[in-house]
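user: Kindly work through both lines:
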Amino acid sequence: MRMTDLIQKKRDGEALSREEIRWMIAGYTAGDIPDYQMSAMAMAIYFKGMDMEETYELTMAMLDSGDKIDLSAISGVKADKHSTGGVGDKTSLVLCPMVAACGVKMAKLSGRGLGHTGGTIDKLESFPGFSTSLTEEAFLQQVDQVGFAIAGQTAELCPADKKLYALRDVTATVASMPLIVSSILCKKLAAGADVIVLDVKCGSGAFMQTEEDAFSLARALTEVGRRAGKKVVAVVTDMDEPLGNAVGNALEVKEALAALRGEYKGDLMELCLTLGTQILREGGAARDDGQARAMLEEAVASGAALEKFAQFVRAQGGDTAAVYDPALLPQASVRIDVPAGAGGYVARIHAEDVGLVSMRLGGGRAAKDDEIDLAVGVVLRKKVGDAVAPGESLGVIHARTRETADAAAEMLRACFEIVPDPVERPPFIKGVVK
């Protein structure tokens, strides 16, 4: 085979065969196919697309480019969750202990953040001593005994995806449906879970800006996942405003703990209940959605979910004192309210811009080696649909200096669109794709 022939074939809109895709991915991973040819192929795929069979074969080829985690030594059903990303997304911190408290085990691999906030790994480091550098043996043992673990991803899983994504990122080919699907699913399949639930976000703060695109991605993910022999469900959710109220690492941990204590009833908890319902039902722990949701709500009300989270923090070397006393989490020395310039109703909160406020305070990374300030960020006081009086607080800035706080306050105020007439809050859960 010659890569030139495959590029031409895809350029002309023809489907690549299983053998051609596997040859291409193996050659690129090994360094036999140069970046310039793979860039041309990625652009051809961007414009001509791939059918579902090609997308499946691409996913499986990338899956087979590296190691896989064997979860068979863990008793019971194993589940995993993935989010397409968003502002204020601390879902795993709430969902995993809720599900584990209901008897389904969660084996979760996560990464560090690059952008507006840290990733799940960064947020968990708000607990002194916490480590996500687990050996595979320790990871499996903890999932089996505690019910869930969250560990950092290893370079050995799907190296083809890591190499191809870095190339896509600098060649304007990230926004390609088959390339997105294969990138997400190869890593989820490599992680070995029986049940995979995907949170596909749409809106201004998400990768998929429209509901139509989000549902298209959800359908493609579930179909390819089923072809691979897994139980896969996708939930399409709103990201036209930040998830929850907190944006910033320790602030998001604090909000997650409030949710586990039953003190938070907003969109974050609704998302965790919806995702958790799909996991429990698909995993056979509940006969239907109603029973699954009731089990999850009881796990929070009884304190079982919070205790499960404490067991998890302890098992990974973290100090559990802050689980029960969130005031012990990292805190910024400067906090200022951001008053509304005019009264009315919140019509929109530009999610991505709120994320940038947190990033510029030090809560995110512009480059992968940047240090994150775990304490800084934003806590919103108002959400879409809420009434606002002139001068009333829109949110609180958590910063290290008054100077950075004042600059962030002006940025946050600009994130809000306030209109004179009442605004109906759009549905948060857009739909479930099975």
Summary: The chain has three domains: 3-49, 78-324, 330-419. The longest helix spans residues 211-227. The first strand starts at residue 78 and ends at 83.
